[in-house]
Amino acid sequence: MTNLTRDFTVTYAARVDDDKVFKALADPTRRHLLDRLFQRDGCTLTELESELEMTRFGVMKHLRVLEQAGLIITRRSGRQKLHFLNPVPIRLIDRWIDKYAERAGALADLKRQPELEGETGDRHADQAGVPGVHQSRPRRPHR
Length: 143
What we know:
The chain has about 140 residues and is mainly alpha-helical. About 55% of the residues lie in helices and about 10% in strands. A hairpin with a 2-residue loop joins strand 1 and strand 2 (about 80-85). The protein starts with 7 loop residues before the first helix and ends in a 16-residue tail after the last helix.
């Protein structure tokens, strides 16, 4: 097995708390921080706060939530604290979401099928001769 990062805490994170990950991803500022780390990994607090209109302490609070969720890992390099993206928890949640996305896609296909049949006029032709399916007939006016 190849060890791409050679950092076991990043690649093989301990048990992921899905609730913490969802909470961390729910905030647009935290998603922006993750996007920034995706673009350039290993940023300092000063680099991360430079694009945000909030205090240094506000950014630190957001980074703490991301770190507690396992979405970022920090490393000290001399006097600097570097922040690195950890995509493993997002991949784990992505697998969970994919399970429901497949079903939603199938339901959307089922919904589209009658719409498409209605456009082509073949709706009643498909149901002809099928037991339990009654074709609608025009109603006669009462005399």
